[in-house]
């Protein structure tokens, strides 16, 4: 044995040849793609720049964000109610919630949007069965209300399953403890179960928000001037289809990125006391991938 | 403990029956626990002792017999010769008077230790934080955790969590405390601190029903021991007598197996 003093041993890091090969292959492909993007005149980058902050586009973004927020609020509130109904011990209530989910998850949201848009053909006047109330469906069901109803109700069916999974993820002993202290079912749900369920509910809900943002583009079929429809109106006049679709896509990417940042913030907030850590950022992962062994041997940050 | 006619028993069980489907787990439990008394329920797993404990505060419904706490039926109101199921509100009122400590602690992980103690008095008893906080801090001090008020349950050892759970139950100022195998989920070196907290509590005159496998605790702290087997109490008597001179062969077999 030439050296028994472990303090003098030197750690030789793995070379990770595979990673370097991957970098070269991906870099070549990226260069080819970027070259085509900037040399192919049909991308029409001047047109993209021209319309990127066009008033109609900006207004369209406003409508898209409005629809996303309102539909998600409806989806989350109704979703919690349906989820709590689904876990009820009353078979009629849980059965009704199941039927609701079956209907809204079993039909395409595009079909639902068209149904709401054409509601007046089914019910020309709406009275909710209450004498004295007689509303003209053609006046109430504007493209915007049809869009909100269609997106919001459809979303509530999906959110209810997410919330239910969250509720079921909370240990049964928590209900025992809350009941044992004299809390009723509503207090237990609101103070004990739902706050803990949030950790399970938040990540998929973030995905739902991002999905909803993109799903709002579907309401272009019922002439709601959101982002995509605004772009379509412009290209139907100037025929610059690709540049305007790029404008819309860039905005969708920007907004989903911002939403993603908000999501990771919320995940950290609700990880309180759980001992789970929010996932590492991309930069952290990258750093670890290339310096993994040194990091773990030394046990400290590089 | 001598039975005085004037005293209402804290717990009175008359022929309590409980079944899950075709599986009858309690086959007629008779037991009276007097105020200030500590009764330990012992027996093999599956003998129904935890189920019986959960019936006392109506976490489980009973299918036969009667259970009363401090003279009031649990889960039912009697009018004439009919029993009416209580409303949720009435059940909650009964439970608020009965503290319960669980094998798995069941602290609320999203709240600090202090918030765990304050939660039920605030939400159930509608007390303001300022009203209840001195009691909460005093109870934490009594279980030796005054410095952990702002810690989250995950940051505590099992023994510390269970002591918090005891303090949380006491913060509702219950008249009866139920313990469901409070030391069974603990590492051996942490059992002592929880048993000490329970012993201190017994010394204050609290009425306690304890499901346990800790024979030393049962012998030192319990007034009486009830040995359960297959859903009935087969032996009931002063702690020292039952442990030193078990009468029933099942009790003898059980005691020799846990020693």
Describe this structure in words.
The complex is a heterodimer of chains A (302) and B (259). Chain A is mainly α and 302 residues long. Chain A is 74% helix and 1% strand. Chain A is built from 13 helices and 2 strands; from the N terminus they run ααααααββααααααα. Chain A is flat. The C terminus of chain A is likely disordered. With 259 residues, chain B is α/β, with parallel strands linked by helices. Helices cover 36% and strands 27% of the residues of chain B. Chain B contains 9 helices and 12 strands. In chain B, the strands form 3 sheets. Chain B has a 6-stranded mixed beta sheet with strand order 8-9-10-3-11-12, sandwiched between helices. Chain B is globular. Chain B starts with 10 loop residues before the first strand and ends with a helix. The mean pLDDT of chain B is 93. The interface between A and B is medium-sized, with 22 and 32 residues.
Q: Which secondary structure elements does this structure contain, and how are they paired or packed?
A:
The complex is a heterodimer of chains A (302) and B (259).
Chain A: H1 17-39, H2 45-52, H3 55-86, H4 91-106, H5 109-117, H6 119-122, E1 125-126, E2 135-136, H7 137-140, H8 143-169, H9 172-180, H10 185-215, H11 227-238, H12 241-270, H13 282-298
Antiparallel strand pairs in A: 1-2
Helix pairs in contact in A: 2-12, 3-4, 3-8, 3-10, 3-11, 4-8, 5-8, 8-10, 9-10, 10-12, 11-12
Chain B: E1 11-20, E2 23-33, E3 38-42, H1 49-56, E4 64-69, E5 72-73, E6 76-79, E7 82-85, H2 88-96, E8 98-101, H3 113-123, H4 129-142, H5 158-170, E9 176-180, H6 188-203, E10 207-211, H7 215-221, E11 224-229, E12 232-238, H8 239-244, H9 249-258
Parallel strand pairs in B: 3-10, 3-11, 8-9, 9-10
Antiparallel strand pairs in B: 1-2, 1-4, 4-5, 6-7, 11-12
Helix pairs in contact in B: 3-4, 3-5, 4-5, 5-6
């Amino acid at each position: 044995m030439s050296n028994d003093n472990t303090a003098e041993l030197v750690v030789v890091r793995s070379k990770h040849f595979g990673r370097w090969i991957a970098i070269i292959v991906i870099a070549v492909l990226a260069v080819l793609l970027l070259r085509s993007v900037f040399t192919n005149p049909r991308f029409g980058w001047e047109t993209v720049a021209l319309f990127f902050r066009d008033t109609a586009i900006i207004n369209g973004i406003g409508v898209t964000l409005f629809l996303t927020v309102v539909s998600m609020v409806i989806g989350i509130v109704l979703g919690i109610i349906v989820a709590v109904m689904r876990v009820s011990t009353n078979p009629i209530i849980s059965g009704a919630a199941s039927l609701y989910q079956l209907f809204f998850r079993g039909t395409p949201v595009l079909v639902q949007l068209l149904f709401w848009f054409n509601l007046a053909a089914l019910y020309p006047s709406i009275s909710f069965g209450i004498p004295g109330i007689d509303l003209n469906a053609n006046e109430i069901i504007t493209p915007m209300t049809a869009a909100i109803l269609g997106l919001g109700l459809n979303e509530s069916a999906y959110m209810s399953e997410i919330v239910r999974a969250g509720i079921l993820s909370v240990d049964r002993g928590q209900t025992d403890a809350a009941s044992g202290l004299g809390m009723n079912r509503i207090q237990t749900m609101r103070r004990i179960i739902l706050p803990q369920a949030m950790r399970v509910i938040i990540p998929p809900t973030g995905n739902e928000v991002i999905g909803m943002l993109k799903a709002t583009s579907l309401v272009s079929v019922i002439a709601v001037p959101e982002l995509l429809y605004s772009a379509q109106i412009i290209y139907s006049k100037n025929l610059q289809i690709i540049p305007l679709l790029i404008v819309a896509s860039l905005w969708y990417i920007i907004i989903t990125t911002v939403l993603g940042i908000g999501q990771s913030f919320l995940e950290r907030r609700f990880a309180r006391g759980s001992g789970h850590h929010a996932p590492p950022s991309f930069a952290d992962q990258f750093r670890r991938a290339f310096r993994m062994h040194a990091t773990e041997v030394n046990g400290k940050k590089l | 403990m001598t039975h005085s006619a004037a005293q209402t028993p804290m717990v009175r069980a008359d022929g309590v029956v409980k079944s899950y489907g075709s599986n009858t787990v309690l086959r007629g439990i008779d037991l009276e626990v007097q105020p200030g008394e500590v009764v330990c329920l012992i027996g093999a797993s599956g003998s129904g002792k935890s189920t019986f404990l959960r019936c006392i505060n109506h976490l489980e419904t009973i299918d036969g017999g009667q259970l009363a706490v401090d003279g009031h039926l649990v889960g039912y109101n009697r009018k004439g010769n009919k029993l009416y199921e209580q409303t949720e509100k009435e059940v909650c009122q009964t439970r608020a008077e009965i503290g319960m400590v669980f094998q798995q602690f069941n602290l609320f992980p999203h709240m600090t230790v202090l918030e765990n103690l304050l939660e039920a008095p605030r939400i159930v008893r509608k007390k303001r934080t300022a009203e209840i906080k001195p009691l909460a801090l005093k109870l934490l001090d009594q279980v030796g955790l005054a410095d952990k008020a702002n810690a989250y349950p995950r940051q505590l050892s099992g023994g510390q969590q269970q002591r918090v759970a005891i303090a949380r139950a006491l913060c509702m100022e219950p008249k009866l405390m139920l313990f469901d195998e409070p030391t069974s989920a603990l590492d051996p070196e942490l059992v002592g601190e929880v048993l000490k907290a329970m012993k201190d509590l017994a010394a204050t005159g609290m009425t306690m029903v304890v499901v346990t496998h800790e024979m030393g605790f049962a012998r030192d702290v319990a007034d009486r021991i009830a040995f359960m087997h297959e859903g009935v109490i087969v032996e009931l008597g002063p702690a020292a007598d039952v442990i030193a001179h078990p009468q029933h062969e099942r009790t003898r077999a059980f005691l020799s197996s846990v020693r």
